[in-house]
From TrEMBL:
<keyword id="KW-0332">GMP biosynthesis</keyword>
<keyword id="KW-0315">Glutamine amidotransferase</keyword>
<keyword id="KW-0436">Ligase</keyword>
<dbReference type="GO" id="GO:0003922">
    <property type="term" value="F:GMP synthase (glutamine-hydrolyzing) activity"/>
</dbReference>
<keyword id="KW-0547">Nucleotide-binding</keyword>
<comment type="function">
    <text>Catalyzes the conversion of xanthine monophosphate (XMP) to GMP in the presence of glutamine and ATP through an adenyl-XMP intermediate.</text>
</comment>
<keyword id="KW-0658">Purine biosynthesis</keyword>
<feature type="domain" description="GMPS ATP-PPase">
    <location>
        <begin position="2"/>
        <end position="208"/>
    </location>
</feature>
<protein>
    <recommendedName>
        <fullName>GMP synthase [glutamine-hydrolyzing]</fullName>
        <ecNumber>6.3.5.2</ecNumber>
    </recommendedName>
</protein>
<comment type="subunit">
    <text>Homodimer.</text>
</comment>
<feature type="binding site">
    <location>
        <begin position="30"/>
        <end position="36"/>
    </location>
    <ligand>
        <name>ATP</name>
    </ligand>
</feature>
<comment type="pathway">
    <text>Purine metabolism; GMP biosynthesis; GMP from XMP (L-Gln route): step 1/1.</text>
</comment>
<keyword id="KW-0067">ATP-binding</keyword>
């Protein structure tokens, strides 16, 4: 473990030296702790010569894009561009039901939009007297990501496409000759969190659960339609709010409300309805390779279910996924 304040100063100096007085850096942010800490660190080191890009992929959580923008721009002073890709992503996801196909479309659409933005930033840089070329690409890679991608060479490489490490920079690097900058690659998650606190990042963000790049698209089984996204979002918002209100958010590692492909019958007032099935999932884990279902108080779980059925139109049932990993995974797809 590093002594944090020394590490921060050391990193800032190292980044300044590496990037030099003029070069610019771009990086994608998601609102998660890793990319936010990396972006805040870059801002501390080189100010507005660092350009953060947030791509709204249409499968972020309720109001998330707006909240991330507010936090990063206003509170953390990060030079941020938000790209509204929601319609494009959702149109490309139309008709896709295979988990890997969904991941691939989201990954490649992300790269398309990100590259477009990188080119725009480079063009703008050419017209700015004191700024040099965009030479670096920032990634918030942690030590466990490095290890995982090294061990991903076996058959497991095809199980899931993680675009945190690998796919994105490969295309960026080769296409535009950008050099990779990874200030967190020697740190573990708890160190990044401590790092974030020292950089003045709010505790809620520091302790935020990880959220996958493909967002709620891998929590909605089967086709991702705008209607199904809206339902999953509303249910998820209720679930997470009630977890926060109960003061148990930090007791679990990840939690979400997903959506099944099938529908089921329920009764609403006097009528029988045919509605969606929500799948709640909450797990505890230390390394994300194995996980256990979180043991809710049953009373709270029933309250959550009642609120979701009452408040989210179209939902007839709520289930709680009690599968461990393995054999289950944390996400539904
Ligand atoms: P699974 O579902 O494989 O998830 O048990 C393990 C951890 O990885 C995250 N995850 C992803 N993150 N892109 C990401 O950026 C992905 O395609 C992806 N798939 C899973 C998941 O949220 C959990 O933290």
């Amino acid at each position: 473990h590093w002594v944090m304040s020394d590490f921060i100063q050391h990193e800032i100096q190292r980044i300044r030296k590496l990037v030099g007085p003029k070069a610019q850096v771009i990086g994608a942010v998601s609102g998660g702790v890793d990319s936010t800490v990396a972006a805040r660190l870059m801002t501390e080191a080189i100010g507005d010569r660092f350009h953060a890009v947030l791509v709204d992929n249409g499968v972020m959580r309720l109001n998330e894009c707006q909240q991330v923008k507010e936090t990063l721009e206003k509170h953390l002073g990060i030079n941020l561009t938000v790209i509204d890709g929601a319609d494009l992503f959702l149109s490309r996801l139309k008709g896709l039901t295979e988990p890997e196909a969904k991941r691939k479309v989201i990954g490649s659409t992300f790269i398309d939009l990100f590259e477009e933005e990188a080119i725009r930033i480079e063009k703008a840089a050419e017209n700015t007297p004191n700024a040099g070329k965009v030479e670096y690409f920032l990634q918030g890679t942690l030590y466990p990501d490095v290890i995982e991608s090294l061990s991903f060479k076996g058959p497991s490489a095809t199980i899931k496409t993680h675009h945190n490490v690998g796919g994105l920079p490969a295309r960026m690097m080769n296409g535009q000759g950008l050099k990779l900058i990874e200030p967190l690659r020697e740190l573990f998650k708890d160190e990044v969190r401590e790092f974030g606190r020292q950089l003045g990042i709010h505790e809620d963000l520091v302790m935020r659960h990880p959220f996958p790049g493909p967002g709620i698209a891998i929590r909605i089984i089967g086709e991702v339609t705008p209607e199904r996204v809206a339902i999953a979002r509303k249910a998820d918002h209720i679930f997470i709010s009630m977890i926060r209100e109960a003061g148990i958010y930090n007791e679990m590692s990840q939690a979400y409300a997903g959506l099944d492909t099938n529908r089921a019958v329920g009764v609403m007032g006097d009528a029988r309805v045919y509605g969606y099935i929500i799948i709640l999932r909450a797990v505890t884990t230390t390394n994300f390779m194995t996980a256990e279902p979180y043991e809710f108080k049953f009373d709270l779980l029933k309250k959550i279910a009642r609120r979701i059925v009452n408040e989210v139109d179209g939902v007839a049932r709520v289930t709680y996924d009690i599968t461990s990993k393995p054999p289950g995974t944390i996400e539904l797809e």
